[in-house]
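Q: What residues go here?
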């Protein structure tokens, strides 16, 4: 009996389509969906990126990408996505706005 080839990495990281999958993210931008999928992958949450373009025929302008995860991973995935969308704190934003690393000098008149 011949051995079956090993599954590819992508197949190992995707949930089984026979399991109950839950939509945790959708976007009209594929690039945004890919970033979120990378975030979930880095947290070891298996996800499936699917095209919502089938809706284009019935609802023009309603396409994009959706991310599905196992039902038991949905809460953790939504939490990670929400945390990643939080604005950075003001101190870090102010430091990022400063275009150089020199100290500001003040003069007395």
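A:
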């Amino acid at each position: 009996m011949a051995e079956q080839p090993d599954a590819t990495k992508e197949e190992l990281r995707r949930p089984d389509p026979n399991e109950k999958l839950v939509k945790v993210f959708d976007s009209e931008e594929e690039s945004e969906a890919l970033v979120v999928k990378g975030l979930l992958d880095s947290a070891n949450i298996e996800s499936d990126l699917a095209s919502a373009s089938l809706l284009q025929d019935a609802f023009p302008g309603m396409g994009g990408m959706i991310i599905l995860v196992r039902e038991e991973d949905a809460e953790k995935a939504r939490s990670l996505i929400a945390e990643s969308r939080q604005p950075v704190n003001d101190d870090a934003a102010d430091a990022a706005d400063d275009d150089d690393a020199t100290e500001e000098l003040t003069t007395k008149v």
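A: Context that may help when evaluating the design: The CA atoms of residues 3 and 11 lie 18 Å apart. DSSP finds five helices and three strands in the chain.
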